[in-house]
Amino acid sequence: MSFLDYFISALLLQAGYNSALVAVGAGLLGLSAGSAGAFIFLRKRALVSDAISHATLPGVGLAFMIMVAFGSDGRWLPGLIIGSAISSAIGLILVEWITRKTRLTEDAAIGAVLSVFFGFGIVLLTIIQTMSSGRQAGLENFLLGSTAGMLISEATTIAVAGALAAAFVFLLRRPMTLVAFDPEYAATTGVNVRNIDLAMMGLALIVTVIGLKIVGLILIVALLIIPPVTARFWTNQVGPMIGISALVGGISGYIGAVLSAAEASIPTGPIIVLVAFGFFMISALFSPLRGALASALRHQRFQRRVHRRQGLLALSRREPIYDGLTLRILRRSGMIRRDGVATLRGRTASEKASRDEARWAMARRILPDDSAIERYDGLTPIERMMTSDQIAEIDRMLAEKQGASA
Amino acid sequence: MRNAELIAEAGKIVDVAGKDAPLTVRGLTVSYGNKPAVFSVDASIPAGSMTAIIGPNGAGKSTFLKGALGVVPRLSGEVRIFGKPFHEARDRVAYVPQRASVDWDFPARVIDVVLMGLYGSVGLLRLWRARHREQAMACLDRVGMNDFADRQIGQLSGGQQQRVFLARALAQNAEFYLLDEPFAGVDAATERAIVSVLKDLKSEGRTVVCVHHDLSTVPEYFDRVLLINVRRIAEGPVDTTFTAENLQETYGGRLAATHIDELRLA
C-alpha cells in the first residue's frame, strides 16, 4: 500500500481500529488544546504554558524511577501523567510565587523555572538510561511525541481527558472571558480572578500532560497558541474564536496523527504542529477579515477612495482636477462627464463630501484627544463614526461658527 | 484617647448616612508596595446622593474605590456596602472602571461587552436569549449607542468606549454605581449623555459615586464631595464642603487661590 493510499484510508478511519482510535484521541486533544489555548491567548499568558510544559519532564523521570522501584517496567501512562502533572504544578506555583513575592517580572520567572525544570528532567532521563531495570527505551518520546505502538487504553485515556477539558472550557467560558477582558470589573461582579486564572492554567496543565504522549512536551505549547492565533484572523468575537480555535486544534491533531501513523519514523508532535502552522499561514494570508491579502486589497480601495474624495472636494470648490487616476475614478462612477463637468450625481456627492469635511474639521477641533479622530481616514462618513448627539454637537458648533463669521 | 475619638467620629458617620448606607468606610488603608496610596480614610455615602471624589493626581482616588470594592487588597480598614460586607451586597453594586484599563482590541462587539453586565444573573450553562439581548439593547439606548451594537469595540472613540462601559453597568440594574473617571478624555456630547444618565439614576433613588477631576463642573453635576489626598481631607454636601479652604488643603500649592475663587462663582 502506498503512503497516499494509507493516508487516505487512515484519514477515513479505515486503517485499523488502533490507528483510528489514536487519530480520534489526537483530534480530541487538539480540540481541548485549541479551546483552552484561546483563553490563555486572550489573557496574554501564552508563555506561562511554555513553563508548564517544560516543567513536566522531571515528573516523568521521577514517576518512572518510582514505578521501577516498585517493580513495574515504569511505562504505565497514567502513572507518568500523574508524575508530570505534579511537577508542572510545582513549576506553575513557583512562577506565580516568584512573580508575586519578588520584584522579578513574570517573563523572568518563566525563563528561570522553564530552564531549571527542563535541565533537571534531562539529568533524570540520562540517569534513567544507565539504570539496569525498567523499560526505558522510548521514554525520550515524551519530548517530541510518538503514536507508534500506542496502546488502545492510552488513546482512550487521552480522548476522554481531552473531551472533559473541552467541556470544562465551555462551562467556564463566561468568567474566563470576563477575566481576560476586564479583570477589575470581573472582581466586582463576584468572579474570583485568582481562581479563574488558576483554572485557566490548570486547563493548560491538563492539556499538556495528556498531550505528552502524542505531541510531546517541547511542542505542546504550539498546540495551545497556534490555533487561537489562527482563529483570531477569522473573527472579532470570543465565542466564534473559541469554536474556530478548537476546530483548528482538533483537525491539526487528527491529520497530524494520521500522517504520523502513515510514516512512523517521524515524531508525531512536529507533524501536528506543522499541520496547525499550515492553517495559520492560510489564515494569515487569505482571511478576509485580518489577512495580509485582504489588507492589501483594502489599502488599494483606500487609495481609490482618497482620490474620489479629493476629486469630489475639488468639484465642490470648483477647482480643476489634474490627477489622471482621480479623473478616471470620477468618470467611471458617473460623477463627471467626459469633458470634466460635474453631473447631477457628482454635484450631490460633492456637496455631501464638503459637508462631511466641515464636520470632521470641527470634530478635530472640539474632540482633541478622541480616538475616533486618531483613526479618521478623511473618508468614512461621519455618521458611521459618531453617535447622533455627537454629530448634533458638531453641527451646533458649525452653525455658531458660521453665525460668527457672517 | 485617640481610639475614643475615632469611635466617636465613626458614630457620627453612621448618623449622617444611616446604618444601611450604600457605602461606609472606616480607616481604609491600601498600599502599593510599602507606600500607602490611601491612608486611614473614613467615608460614608448616603443613599440617593451623587458624590464626587476629588483630589490631585496620585491622591488615591481610584485606589479608594478599588479598595472599597475589594479589587485591590486592603491593608486595614472596614468597608460596609448597604450595611453588609461587599460579597453579600455585590448584586446591588455596579462598578465602571477607567476605560484605559482594558485592551480594546479584544475580540468583542459592543453588545457583547454590555451582555457582560448580565453574566452575574445568568447561569454558567445558559445561552443568551432574545430577552437578554433586548435588555442589553435598552441599556445601549440609554447611552445613545444602539446603532453601534454590532460594532467592533476596537473601532470606538474614547467617549463611545466610556458609554459602552456605562451601559454594561446599567445592565447590572444596581442600586449603587461607582465610576472611575467617567469623564476623562471624552467629548462634550458624551459628557452630557453620561451626566444625564447619572442624574436619571439619582432621580430613581439610586446612589452614584464618581472619581472626578474637573473641579469646574463639581457644583453642577454633584451634590456631595469627598476630598482625598492620601488621607481624607473633608466630606459633605457641595455647599458646605466644596470650599476654597478645603480645596487649598487638598491640592496644596497646586491650585492657585484665584482659580478657586472662580470655581466658587461658577
TrEMBL record, chain A:
Pfam families: ABC-3 (PF00950)
Keywords: Cell membrane, Membrane, Transmembrane, Transmembrane helix, Transport
Record keyword Cell membrane present: yes
Biological processes, Gene Ontology terms: response to zinc ion; transmembrane transport
Compartments, record wording: Cell membrane
Transmembrane intervals: 20-42, 51-70, 76-97, 109-128, 148-172, 203-226, 238-259, 271-289
Superkingdom of source: Bacteria
InterPro entries: ABC_BtuC-like (IPR037294), ABC_TroCD (IPR001626)
PANTHER family: ABC-TRANSPORTER METAL-BINDING PROTEIN (PTHR30477), METAL TRANSPORT SYSTEM MEMBRANE PROTEIN CT_069-RELATED (PTHR30477:SF3)
Name by which UniProt lists this protein: Metal ABC transporter permease
Origin species: Thalassospira lohafexi
UniProtKB/TrEMBL annotation, chain B:
Any single biological process term in GO: zinc ion transport
Ion transport found in the keyword field: yes
MF term (GO), any: ATP binding
CDD domains, per database record: ABC_Metallic_Cations
Zinc found in the keyword field: yes
Domain ABC transporter, first and last residues per copy: 23-255
Gene3D superfamilies: P-loop containing nucleotide triphosphate hydrolases (3.40.50.300)
One Pfam assignment: ABC_tran
Swiss-Prot/TrEMBL keywords: ATP-binding, Ion transport, Nucleotide-binding, Transport, Zinc, Zinc transport
Family of the protein in this entry: Belongs to the ABC transporter superfamily.
Protein name as it appears in the record: Manganese ABC transporter ATP-binding protein
Annotated source species: Thalassospira lohafexi
